[in-house]
Every structure is written in C-alpha cells, then in structure tokens.
Amino acid sequence: MLQGKNAIVTGASRGIGRAIALELAKQGANVAVNYAGSETKAQAVVEEIEQLGVKAFKVQADVANESSVKDMVKQVINEFGSLDILVNNAGITRDNLLMRMKEEEFDQVINTNLKGVFVCTKAVTRHMMKQRNGKIVNVASIVGVSGNPGQANYVAAKAGVIGLTKSTAKELATRNIYVNAVAPGFISTDMTDELTDEQREGMLSMIPLEKLGDPEDVAKVVRFLASDDSNYITGQTIHVDGGMVM
Ligand code: NAD
C-alpha cells in the first residue's frame, strides 16, 4: 500500500506514534522516527521497523521549534531522497481546572500540540508542493470536538488542529497535497495509564463499543489516510473513538 513512500512520524518513540510508524512500515514505507525524549526508545522502534525490511532512522526535534524541525526535514530528505507522508502525532497534556491552570501549562500544550502541527506542516510543504504530491495526517482528539473539563489547553489545541487541517487542506489541494486528521477517543497508552479506576469506569460508560481503543486502531486509519486509497478525501477528521462522539 505504501511501497517506496517516505514518511516522518512525530513523537514516534512510544504509544500511538510508535504504532503509526510500525503500521506505515508494514505497508512498505521508509520511516523517520521523530522523538524529543528517550533516544533508547526511538532506537528500539527503528530496529523494529528495519526488521520489516524497510529503511528507518531516528531524528531528534522539538516539533514546536522551527529551526529544529527544518533541520529534521532536511535530514529526512537527504536520507530518503524525498518525503511523501507527514504524520503530526507528537502531543502532551498538562491537565488542570481552568481556575488553577497556569499560563505556562496553557502555553506548553498550545505550543506542542497546535504550533507543532503548524511548524511541521510548513516545513514539509515546499518540498511536497514541488513534487506535487503529499499526505499529511494530523492526530487531533475527540475532545477537540466535544470539550472536556480540566483540559481547556488541550481541547483548545486539538480543536485548533481540526481547523488547521481544514484550512491547509483547502490551501494545498491544488498541489495534490492531502491533509486529514484522526480524532482518537480513549486509547490505551502511557497517557491513559495514569487514569484512576474511577476515571476509567466513567470513561467506559461513555463509549458505545464499551472498550478503550488500541494504538493500532488509530494507526490503521492513519495508514488509510496516508495511502492512495483515500485520494478523494481531504480536510476531514475521522473519529476513532468507539462511537463516543456522534
Ligand atoms: P504519549 O505520551 O505516549 O506519546 C506522545 C509522544 O509525543 C511521546 O513520544 C513524546 O516524547 C512526544 N512528544 C511530546 N512533545 C514533543 C515535542 N515537543 N516534540 C517531539 N515529540 C514530542 O501519548 P499518546 O497517547 O501516544 O498520544 C499521541 C497523540 O495522540 C497525541 O497527539 C495525543 O494528544 C493524541 N491522543 C491520544 C489519546 C489517548 O487516549 N492516548 C486520545 C486522543 C488523542
């Protein structure tokens, strides 16, 4: 499905990003594994991908830092020769009730989760415009559609990502660059492992399919949006949430 394609997945050393990187590689794509934190984990993902018979390398960059993202994109194009797919997955949470939320908690989340998508998209766009071909997939969140108490910063960022997806899709469509998003619901990762039993129970009661999702559930939809099978879809946000928000 993705034979010969070259991809960057941001925040790919664990969780949903790792699953996306592996899923794209299983379909034949070469993958640059972006990371900000643990080099060891990123290296482990690279080795797993190489075992699938495609190329991979790790590349450190803070997605919110324009110069480090520009370097990352340059490095990927040097290494792979071209760049066809960008998956904007990196994200953080700094949850707090509005009245307790500090300015820096708001700024950190907006910077990584929203500005990061803008910076990475801008950095790949010139190259994709020249080759008149590209797939950009943004990882939003279902709370960007529904809202969530205690997550004003995160929800604002993810709602922003959904808007950014629509705007860039319209702007880049004539150049054959597709921009779509996935909005995961509650997915079992380090991010959701921190929940208490009570929070988990409350969550399950809101999900018609009565289960949390797996990172692979999200990765398979990203793979579809990164492939030619989705060539009449742009500007959309696909909910991967067990039916939680309809
Ligand atoms: P995670 O914390 O396991 O992974 C996030 C990754 O992003 C980590 O590898 C982290 O190092 C990386 N990262 C953070 N800041 C970065 C930066 N500035 N530059 C580069 N990388 C950075 O979380 P996850 O659950 O795998 O989440 C992945 C994405 O899915 C996030 O965008 C998150 O908001 C979104 N999401 C997750 C869920 C869920 O239930 N887990 C639900 C909806 C949306």
TrEMBL record:
Catalytic activity annotation: a (3R)-hydroxyacyl-[ACP] + NADP(+) = a 3-oxoacyl-[ACP] + NADPH + H(+)
Catalytic activity, EC: 1.1.1.100
Pfam families: adh_short_C2
Entry binding sites for NADP(+): G11, A12, S13, R14, N89, Y154, V155, A156, A157, K158, I187
Pathway terms, separated by semicolons: Lipid metabolism; fatty acid biosynthesis
One record GO biological process: fatty acid biosynthetic process
Ketoreductase domain ranges (all copies): 5-185
Active site (UniProt): Y154 (proton acceptor)
UniProt KW Lipid metabolism keyword: yes
InterPro entries: 3oxo_ACP_reduc, KR_dom, NAD(P)-bd_dom_sf, Sc_DH/Rdtase_CS, SDR, SDR_fam
PROSITE patterns (UniProt xref): ADH_SHORT (PS00061)
NCBIfam families: 3oxo_ACP_reduc, PRK05653.1-1, PRK05653.1-4, PRK07231.1, PRK12826.1-2
Summary of the function given for this chain in its UniProt record: Catalyzes the NADPH-dependent reduction of beta-ketoacyl-ACP substrates to beta-hydroxyacyl-ACP products, the first reductive step in the elongation cycle of fatty acid biosynthesis.
Subunit relationships: Homotetramer.
Family under the similarity heading: Belongs to the short-chain dehydrogenases/reductases (SDR) family.
Protein name: 3-oxoacyl-[acyl-carrier-protein] reductase
Organism: Virgibacillus oceani
Source lineage: Bacteria, Bacillati, Bacillota, Bacilli, Bacillales
